[in-house]
Amino acid sequence: MNHAATLPRAARRPWRFSPARVGVYAFLITAAAFFLMPLYIMLVTSFKTMDEIRLGNIFAFPVAITVEPWVTAWTSACTGVSCEGIRGGFWNSVWIVIPSTILPILLGALNGYALSFWKPRGANALFAVLMLGAFIPVQVMMFPLVRILATLGLFSSLPGIVVIHIIFSMPVMTLLFRNYYQSIPQELFKAARIDGGGFIRIFVQLMLPMSTPIIIVAAIMQVTGVWNDYILGLVFAGRDNLPMTVQLNNVINTTTGTRLYNVNMAATILTSLVPLTIYFVSGRWFVRGIAAGAVKG
Asked: pLDDT (tens digit, 9 = 90+) per residue, 228-245?
């Protein structure tokens, strides 16, 4: 039996270079090189000594590879008056990210579930007001939130910065879960109601197990957004809870002593490792979650 004859025509189509295909690949390669070039420069610079950096060839591989800039960035780089590296900021960011990811996803899932299936009176108006918050600039709300948190005794504290991230994430989290749940057949919800399921039981036993794709999407968005945040952490976290991005800014913009470019590059890469790892490891899950209903209306 001729197996080639049984293959679809698209599978047996010979590879041919056309002007359009060459143009597409040329554009993709150019775009990839454009976006990867800064990362390449940061990597090679972080492994060079300062004497080699002063030669001015930023694209050259390091002649003598050294990891001392990485050790310095992690343990002894000066972040203002303190010279303890950015490891403290790393753990601060971890303690901020964990509750600032779990709580918004849980609240966003509850909001989306209620708006999609239970539809309380005025649900559309409430949803419109919530979405309006997504378009208000952070700078407009900064001062009122400072006053509110100061009144509640939460300003410059870990719970305070977590509350701020929950507030600013609610519109997007609610939108994601509402659109996802609206793609689920109403018959499943009605059958659960007939079986005697209440609000919480249906949510925990039926909706959450079906929400894995959108939970992954929401977690990727929230972790990367909170981890990369600078302005909210600077204003609301307090001196003892400054995230890694704020400490990175202090390392790079220090005005005392010699500017150590290799240490600066190493600190930058260390700060960006978490979101980079998440995108490399979970990128396909992000696409699957989007395709499963994250942008369906």
From this structure: 999 999 999 988 899 999
